[in-house]
């Protein structure tokens, strides 16, 4: 059974994935911004797997 919290985390994870893709496809991607987005995504993934 999926909880509201888990659904919210998955939604945030998907949004971060889109932001990472958008930043990666820019002519001059911001490496620092990409690194921060990837760290946030990893933290969400770790939280999801712990549920």
From TrEMBL:
InterPro entries: DUF465 (IPR007420), DUF465_sf (IPR038444)
Full protein name: DUF465 domain-containing protein
Species of the source: Sphingomonas jinjuensis
């Amino acid at each position: 059974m999926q909880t509201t919290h888990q659904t919210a985390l998955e939604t945030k994870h998907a949004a971060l994935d889109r932001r990472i893709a958008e930043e990666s496809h820019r002519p001059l991607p911001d490496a620092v911004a990409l690194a921060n987005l990837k760290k946030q995504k990893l933290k969400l993934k770790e939280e999801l797997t712990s549920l």
